[in-house]
Write a structure and sequence with these properties.
Layout lengths: L4 H18 L5 E9 L2 E10 L2 E7 L5 E8 L4 E6 L4 E4 L12 E11 L2 E10 L4 E9 L5 H8 L4 H6 L8 E10 L5 E12 L14 E2 L3
Parallel strand pairs: 6-12
Antiparallel strand pairs: 1-2, 1-11, 2-3, 3-4, 4-5, 5-6, 7-8, 8-9, 9-10, 10-11
C-alpha cells in the first residue's frame, strides 16, 4: 500500500493546531473597577492555568486583600498582607434558584481594544436587569472561577445563567433595578494584559500564619 506522506503530514499539522487551540488559555493580568453607589473598589486578576490570584487594591495602590484559587482541586485561600495571615475560604451553600430571561441583542462595540457584544439578562423575581458587554477569547478560566468564588452578587449569579459563555469575559456590566431603571452597580474592565506570571504569586507567602477561629 502506497502511503501519501503529504496527506499524513498535513493531518498531523492540523491535529496539532486543533490540540493547541483546545488547550489555549489566557495567561496574564486583568484589572477592573467595581462601583456600587459611592463605593469604588479596584481589583486585579492574575491568571495562569488552573491558578488565579485576585487582589483588592486600595486607593493608594497597596494590596489590601488577596484570594488564591486553585481550580484543579477547588481550594480558595484568603490572605491578609497587612496581618500576614491566611485562611481557607469555606464552601458556602448554593444560592436559591431563580428564573431569568436572556437576550443577545446583536449589538457590538469596542472596549479597551476588545470587540464586545451585548447580552441583557433580566429577572422579574429579583427586579433586576444586567447589561453585559462580553468579549470572546481564551478566557476559559472565568466561569469556573465564578463557581469557585460562589458569590451571591447578582452580577455573578446572572452571568452564570447565560448559556454558551465558555471562553468569554465581561468587559463591562451594569446592574439596574428593573422596575425603576436605576443603576445600582457597575463592573468595568480597565486593562487586559497578556504576560507570563511567576508560579510563586499563586502560593501562600513564606512566614504567613494560618488564621485560627
Amino acid at each position: 500500500m502506497k502511503l501519501n506522506f503529504k496527506k499524513i503530514a498535513f493531518t498531523i499539522f492540523v491535529t496539532g493546531v486543533m490540540t493547541l487551540g483546545a488547550f489555549a488559555q489566557f495567561e496574564g493580568a486583568i484589572e477592573f473597577e467595581k462601583n456600587v453607589g459611592n463605593v469604588h473598589v479596584k481589583y486585579r486578576y492574575y491568571v495562569k492555568g488552573d491558578h488565579i490570584r485576585i487582589e483588592e487594591i486600595a486607593s493608594d495602590g497597596t494590596v489590601e486583600g488577596i484570594k488564591l484559587i486553585d481550580m484543579s482541586n477547588g481550594s480558595t485561600y484568603a490572605i491578609s498582607p497587612e496581618q500576614k495571615l491566611y485562611m481557607e475560604a469555606p464552601n458556602r451553600r448554593s444560592a436559591e434558584d431563580f428564573e431569568v430571561e436572556v437576550k443577545k441583542t446583536g449589538k457590538t462595540k469596542t472596549i479597551e481594544g476588545k470587540k464586545c457584544k451585548e447580552i441583557i439578562v433580566t429577572s422579574k423575581d429579583k427586579d433586576r436587569k444586567i447589561v453585559y458587554w462580553v468579549t470572546k477569547g481564551d478566557y476559559d478560566f472565568f466561569l469556573p472561577m465564578l463557581k469557585s468564588l460562589n458569590r451571591k452578587e447578582n452580577q455573578s449569579l446572572f452571568y452564570q445563567k447565560i448559556d454558551g459563555m465558555e471562553g468569554y469575559f465581561p468587559m463591562l456590566s451594569r446592574e439596574y433595578i428593573l422596575s425603576s431603571g436605576r443603576l445600582v452597580s457597575e463592573l468595568k474592565t480597565t486593562s487586559v494584559k497578556e504576560q507570563e506570571n511567576k508560579d510563586e504569586i499563586f502560593e501562600i507567602p513564606d512566614g504567613y500564619r494560618k488564621f485560627e477561629r
